Amino acid sequence: MEPEAALAPTVQPVARVSTNTSVRMVAAATAPVQLLPDTTAVVINVAGIDALLAVVDVDALVAKYRPFYDQAAQLMTTNFGANLLDPGQWQLIGIDAKGPMGVALVDVRSTTFVGYATVSDPALLRSFVDRVTGAGRLVPVFEDRGLVLKLDPERAQALVLRDGFVFFVAGDEIYAAMTDIARLLATIDPARGLTASARYQQAIAGGAPDPGLSAYVDLSAALEDEAASLASPRTGSSYVEEELERARATGVAPDVEDELRKQIDREHEWERRNLERRTRRLELARRWLTVMSPVMFEFTGSASGVVGTIRAKMPETAPLRAVLRNAAEPSPVLMALGERPVLMLGGSVEVPAALAELEALLHASGEDPAKLYLEIDKEMGIPDARRELLEMLAGTGGFALTVSDALMRGEGPGRGGDLGFAVGLGVNDEARAEVLLERAWKHVAQRMRASGTPAPVGKDRASGAHTLAVGGYRTVYAKVVARQLVVTTDLGVIQRVAAGTARTTHKWIEPAVVPVVSARDAAMQGLLDVMLMVLVTRSGFTGDERSEPMQPYWMFAGTTAEQLEKIPRSPAYKAELRQWQAVTAKINKRERAQQRIQARQMVELAMCLGVMTGNLREQPDGLVLAGGQMFGKGGLTRAIELGTDYFSQPSAADEGLQDLREARVKHEGELQRIRAQDVATALKVPTPTM
Q: What residues pair up with 398 in beta bridges, in sequence order?
């Protein structure tokens, strides 16, 4: 059926519709991505709604929240003629839920996005769109191989129907884009579109067949946009320049005009430096990225997680490949953790290449690498830091943040004490590394003491590890063992690395995650538990820990608080204070109990969501990052249930807590009244009115 016939009942003819009957015939597109222009920077594609819903048990969620679902479904049906919460009813509005759908950034400069879906019935879709837009009906403004519909011909927003697909174009004004994207979608030959381009073909070669979830990201488009922006410097006057013109016209004092000129000079100097900095960064980015193919994300969703690969092809001479190298095994520190990890990151690099690229990055940002090495000397006491790093480091390392068992039970001490860490750096010369460690250890302790942080140094008798007792935190241990310089809050990590029994991390993570983070012959490996990280940042008791409430010293002008503090507390004040402290202790106890319950709920939620994990390998033709979000017991379905309960339902009511809080307020008022009377009597002045 031709587009005109399918839409005949609702289409109103307008002068701008093409009547061209000599359109060259081309093959119809079999996928919406084929109709995107080859300048498209980002495409996120879903092979039907089932590919998304595979990660969650929809039936179980609907059954649990049936009243809310039915209410929302009724609202959808009333407003749109179909329950859009049910993909099975999308056909009632003309959309095929099993067909490909997604979103693409097709023009970086104008930030033009295109959302697309598969059409089952154009007439039903048009009727649905008319219902949504209300009085402002879409009208055809252009027709070629596809039909362009708009509310306003002068704006970029448009709906395009073509080859059984619908495209919604959203962006800035139509003139901001180099091309009218809607018309391009209606006219483009699939043989000249994105999927036919050499860069796209290079990126997808060797990939997974028909992944459920995929993304195509061409970073070179961002580089081209930045280059175009640098080539078109600011035109017109700035606010300060306009202010100077107004000042001249109205006549101002010479010193005012001179100050405006200085502001303009400073503004121009900032613009010049910023332009130079952006130019250097662009040059560095081009050196890194122009040799890369677009990045391909290919994932599959299921009840156990969303897993797959991220691939980028590049020659062996590419800077990123020059820095990375596959290691026989991950850092032993990452495998020897005695607490649950919330963040792990390990890698293997060529140290000279890594330092060279770091220095290039600093240069591009306008920084002097020599200052970095001087800062290392200042903070760590390592002279000639660059030479030491080149000669001492083997190029392997790992870093981990961990959480205590107490926090996992909701009983953590808080104030940062729940968070531990472990760092391990491979070294070439153990004796040399030990000398540097001892020197740096004493230097750091001295600097911490100078800053007011108590941090006595010593040695652990059993292991010989250096110790640093950080006030308000944990004791930190450091030692060079098994060609590893290890710094950690867990002495057991050092002992296990030294003994070569580094496998304890496995018991803290799900079995499916173990092969990912412990993979051999990988250049990098990592893990992130987002929800546990959130829990750590909000852990710690925040109750009222004051010994007494605020004093009413503001009522006595002309006398300092130090002078007033010397006035003794009266017996009446002390008796009332004991009551205030007793009430405060009860409040703190109840609030701690509530926080423990909330912490346990957050831990359960985190365990269901699981972790994001992956490992990066250098392949003959580029780099491949394998992994994804791996759910825990109950998966995303259980996580949604727990999250809904946690964020939508109030905490278990403590009927006496509010009464205690009100009682404390009364005690605070009485304490201030008594203290004001005591101070007034001591100063022999009238008692001020509260």
A: 346, 424
